[in-house]
Amino acid sequence: RKEVEQDPGPFNVPEGATVAFNCTYSNSASQSFFWYRQDCRKEPKLLMSVYSSGNEDGRFTAQLNRASQYISLLIRDSKLSDSATYLCAGGVAGGFKTIFGAGTRLFVKA
Amino acid sequence: DAGVIQSPRHEVTEMGQEVTLRCKPISGHDYLFWYRQTMMRGLELLIYFNNNVPIDDSGMPEDRFSAKMPNASFSTLKIQPSEPRDSAVYFCASSLAGGIQETQYFGPGTRLLVL
Lengths: 110, 115
Description:
The complex is a heterodimer.
Chain A: E1 4-6, E2 11-14, E3 19-25, E4 30-38, E5 44-50, E6 55-57, E7 60-65, E8 70-75, E9 84-92, E10 98-100, E11 104-109
Parallel strand pairs in A: 2-11
Antiparallel strand pairs in A: 1-3, 3-8, 4-5, 4-9, 6-7, 7-8, 9-10, 9-11
Chain B: E1 5-7, E2 10-13, E3 19-24, E4 31-38, E5 42-50, E6 53-56, E7 65-71, E8 74-79, E9 88-95, E10 105-106, E11 110-114
Parallel strand pairs in B: 2-11
Antiparallel strand pairs in B: 1-3, 3-8, 4-5, 4-9, 5-6, 7-8, 9-10, 9-11
């Protein structure tokens, strides 16, 4: 089983829709979690960090459920420009090693 | 700031040849990471350095891969000899400190194709 698992998608949604991605992690010692965005043929870029019970940044909300060992990303009022691959990642304190999921592809259609 | 710089951006080589990938981290960043990304395996951490010292190389696939960081502003990842299965995008990333809550900034990547 992979340490960090994501639904690969793709998710095809119309503009304005709300879409949610889930990501599960197997290492219960994981303490910090992230969502990265990766555009086609580009490098990953940090979208949001998720440290405790979750956080919100504009149209984006990240949630953490430690009991069930998953994190989620909610995108409201999706835009064409949100089309990308979203990578979740988890890190274990003391090891400085961040493990990435394989990514979930999102296509937002006009 | 120029961000993380990688070269070359694209590399096509033949099986058996030596490949050297280069990375210049963001100035002042103490940590440097090398990743490999493929469709099949996703983004995998190969090795990371702290203050030029390799800390964890458990992700390096095999002895054909080696990485060095001779100074704070330069690192190389070498594959010798290269094989077709090494074809991937290789990313270098750096962070200001090594804590897991620190943002990693990725370079644009090197697309490697081994024929």
